[in-house]
Amino acid sequence: MDLNKIVSTLNEKGVSVCFIQDNLTFEAGNNSPMNALIFNMLGSFAQFERDLIIQRASEVRERVKKQGKTPR
Fold first, then answer.
1. Which SUPFAM superfamilies does this UniProt record tie to the protein (predicted)?
2. Is the model's pTM score more than 0.85?
């Protein structure tokens, strides 16, 4: 969400944003609906991955606590 807001704010100020690795360009005043879709999908997958990492780390900490050890 934050990245989406940053790109939108920059576009409103007349700045074009280009993601070289993903070959996505967001031009001020002229955005492709397909680019927006891909951008939002990539953001959703990134958030999903972060959430999974947090969940797994939490599960490991709980398992370590049950074994009587101190989690790092």
1. Resolvase-like
2. no
